[in-house]
Design a protein that fits this description.
The chain has 215 residues and is mainly β. It has 2 helices and 9 strands, in the order αββββαβββββ. β2 and β3 form a beta hairpin. The N and C termini lie far apart (104 Å).
Length: 215
């Protein structure tokens, strides 16, 4: 900020030169520095929901790793935030945002410059969401989970919100549905994040003899 007094000499309508200006009636550099310290930093608001990259959304399991009882979804955001994911049986209706949040399988993004991420963004905001169950049926005890079933096909859906910005009152979350186009590879509404996968079945079958007879 540069403050200049346009008065000349001791013109009748101008005050005497204070100690904060020089002989040319210009604010001193130290005055500008003090103003900067008092007035900054100033941030613009962030009112835009994050874009979510889910590996090969709509098809099969690139970027998804499974065990018999867990599903890990590797995701990326275009800004720092938190990703929530939920599994439903193949062909079931997509879960609502509240159902995804209620399942509470989430991961905050980790900032990295790794070249092994999905997009060309730099830095990269990666989140690996581990789904350990189908839902949490007991509201009084969130540690209770309905386990995933081995060798079962699931559809995965994810939701994301960003970190609270300076001056913002609430975070910005993805909508459930939107017809607005976005950058290729990213997803900006829940229904578009669908990924199909199948839990592993590495357990050998048990055989039990019920009856026997000789012929």
């Amino acid at each position: 900020v540069r403050v200049v007094n346009q008065g000349v000499g001791s013109a009748e309508n101008f005050a005497a030169v204070p100690s904060t200006v020089d002989s040319r009636n210009q604010a001193l550099f130290t005055t500008s520095q003090a103003f900067k310290t008092a007035a900054t930093p100033v941030y613009t608001l962030d009112l835009t929901p994050p874009l979510l990259y889910v590996p090969v959304a709509g098809t099969s399991t690139a970027g998804v790793t499974n065990t018999e009882t867990t599903i890990t979804v590797r995701t990326e955001l275009d800004e720092p935030g938190t990703v929530y994911c939920k599994a439903v049986r193949r062909g079931f209706d997509p879960p609502t945002i509240l159902e995804i949040l209620d399942a509470d399988y989430k991961a905050a993004t980790v900032t990295t410059a790794s070249a092994s991420s999905f997009t060309s963004n730099n830095p990269h905001y990666l989140a690996n969401v581990v789904i350990q169950g189908y839902d949490r049926p007991d509201n009084s005890n969130p540690t209770v989970q309905t386990p995933l079933v081995l060798g079962t096909q699931y559809d995965l859906y994810c939701y994301a919100d960003d970190d609270l910005c300076s001056g913002c009152r609430v975070t910005n979350g993805m909508p459930y549905f939107s017809s607005t186009a976005v950058a290729s590879g990213f997803h900006h509404f829940v229904q578009s994040t669908k990924v199909q996968t199948r839990t592993l079945d590495q357990t050998r079958p048990n055989m039990k003899i019920v009856a026997k007879e000789a012929i």
